[in-house]
Amino acid sequence: MTSPLSLKHCRPGPTKRSSPPGAGAQAVILPAVQREPLVDGHGRSIGDVRISVTDRCNFRCQYCMPAEGLKWLERSSVLDFEEITRVVGLLASIGVGDVRLTGGEPLVRKDFPKLAGMLAQLPGVEDLSVTTNGFLLGRDAAALVAAGVNRFNVSIDSLQQDKFYELTRRDALPQVLEGLHTLAAFPEAHPIKINAVAIRGFTEDEIPAFVDFAREFPFEVRFIEFMPLDADHAWEPEKVLSGAEILAAINAIHPLEEQPREPSATAKVYNFADGKGKIGLINPVSEPFCSDCNRIRLTAEGKLRTCLFSLHETDLREPLRSGASDDELIQIVRDAVWRKELKHHVGEPGFIQPARTMSAIGG
Ligand code: SF4
Q1: Range of 88's domain?
Q2: 145 by DSSP, 3-state: which?
Q3: Chain centroid to CA 234: how far?
Q4: Which residue ranges does the record assign to the Radical SAM core domain (predicted)?
Q5: Is residue 15 included in any domain, yes or no?
Q6: Contact criterion met (CB below 8 Å) for 25 and 118
Q7: What's the total number of domains in the chain?
Q8: Are 19 and 188 in contact (CB under 8 A)?
């Protein structure tokens, strides 16, 4: 039997996104009006927006939501494709050219590839990426690549079927790996990153398998420290398996060489010293990277969040639906971003976990 991990025949190289495709998608093309770039009150340029296109998900990851799921948003309260496209177009006109589509699970949103195609055609959108749990990748990979998505992050927290089931409450690992297989066959889809949430007492024995996975296949495996954004509020600092611990564990198996950090990057990236693959460590708890943060977020119902851990949000849906002009909308964004938090306060006395969970923020 072919091992679910055998992807020997998919070794395409990375390519830069050429021209916006998606001939079929009807998009709201906005004029390429260039405006003053978006900056926050700390002088940081904002260039990256994460768009949650739905709060719904087909998984029930323990570090995110309860087994019974959450009360989903009414469909009418969720931004439609034209509204999302208008906001992304306006953000692109003020320098926010990196667009990441998330959820919940974005691929459960009906006609999601059509939305991706609409966004890929917008002037100023330089990079369009998707974060997915991979379960529906087999179905949508071709359409998403054709639509113009040029980077993919696939969330896989375990390469052991039983442990994957235990954490996600879905017996879905084979289908996720098959989806990853399908996606990896598209040269345009690379780089493909695997995001594994690192939890003490769960992830330690996963590290060797993820190391082999990163060395054998064209995927960058990244370990993300467990963050206090879970619906059960079960997060504790003791449950955080730190990046430093993971680094030591990997170095003991295969030595790593740290690469120069990209500005505003969330991950510390390492190449294996023998040249076989990459590992990333995202350490928001033990080594926060807020000083040059360039990210903002938009929730599925149109709330602008200026930080992953924001306790305040700015509503864009109401002005969007009550006829606000482009300039009025942009001013609302500028005012909110001017008050963007300097940093998070996780692990500090007085830290308050946001009421909104990761599934409704989108990461
Ligand atoms: S915690 Fe907030 S400020 Fe820090 S990197 Fe994340 S979004 Fe930026």
Answers
A1: 43-361
A2: helix
A3: 22
A4: 41-257
A5: no
A6: yes
A7: 1
A8: no
Model pLDDT for residues 226-283, shown as the tens digit of each residue? 999 988 888 999 999 999 999 999 999 999 999 999 999 999 999 999 999 999 999 9
10 Å CB burial of residue 128 (0-12, 13-18, 19+) is: buried
Q: Do residues 108 and 136 touch, judged by C-beta distance below 8 A? A: yes
Q: The domain spanning residue 243 has which CATH number?
A: 3.20.20.70
Residue 257's alpha-carbon distances to 21, 108, 262, in angstroms, are 37, 38, 15
Assess if residue 22 is contained within a domain. no
pLDDT at residue 34, as a whole number:
66
Does 55 map to a domain?
yes
Alpha carbon 15 to chain centroid distance? Answer: 20
Residue 344 Cβ inside 6 Å of ligand 1? The answer reads yes
H or E segment and range at residue 151: strand 151-155
Q: How far apart are CA 100 and CA 266, in angstroms?
A: 14
Biggest CA-to-CA distance, the chain? 60
Among protein residues, the one whose CA lies closest to atom 7 of ligand 1: 307
Q: Is the C-beta atom of 308 inside 6 A of ligand 1?
A: yes
- Which residues, listed in sequence order, are joined to residue 52 by a DSSP beta bridge? 102
pTM, two decimal places: 0.90
**Tell me, what DSSP letter sits at residue 172?**
-
Cβ of residue 343 lying under 6 Å from some atom of ligand 1: yes
Return d(Cα 220, Cα 97) in angstroms, integer. 23
